[in-house]
Design a protein that fits this description.
This protein has 150 residues and is mostly beta strands. It has a domain at 30-131. It has one helix at residues 2-20; strands at residues 25-32, 38-45, 63-69, 71-79, 82-83, 89-90, 93-100, 104-110, 123-128.
């Protein structure tokens, strides 16, 4: 009888221990605050050579909620091609490394903009680096020209 009770206690301890070892997942909300579609979003363990499958695509101002395994992860977003000038296009990417231990909102935006709400708890900005548009030259007729040096 004692051996049977000890065996039951050991089995229960192993089952409880294994239940605690299961992977936990966090809710991640993806938000596109750029003016172009994001065609692919990858979230994968930090340092992994394999990105896995894309978690989805996002139209401008769209959101998508997914579950991701807790831990240190890398985020890679790839946007639709944009025209740089009359002869060139580029595909912009944004990356971020983070520790995923609670629900989070990832807000994708361009470096030339700061969408509202990035300062909210649980919100992380993921930035596409964009070269700002050059300022148009000032014309002397506009009255905005710098004063001549004396």
């Amino acid at each position: 009888m004692v051996i049977r009770t000890v065996a039951i206690v050991v089995v229960l301890a192993v089952v409880i221990g294994l239940a605690g070892c299961g992977a936990s997942y966090q809710q991640v909300q993806l938000v596109n605050k750029t003016t172009r579609p994001i065609t692919e979003v990858y979230i994968f363990p930090t340092g992994s050579a394999q990105h896995g499958s894309s978690r989805g695509a996002l139209a401008p101002d769209a959101t998508l909620t997914i579950k991701v395994k807790s831990g240190n992860v890398d985020v890679l977003a790839i946007s639709a091609k944009v025209r740089v000038d009359a002869t060139q296009t580029e595909t912009r990417t944004a990356t971020q490394t983070l520790e995923l231990k609670k629900p989070v909102s990832l807000v994708f935006h361009d470096s030339t903009q700061t969408p509202p709400g990035l300062d909210q708890p649980g919100t992380i900005g993921v930035v596409f680096q964009v070269t700002p548009e050059p300022e148009p030259p000032l014309s002397p007729e506009s009255g905005d020209a710098p004063a001549p040096a004396l």
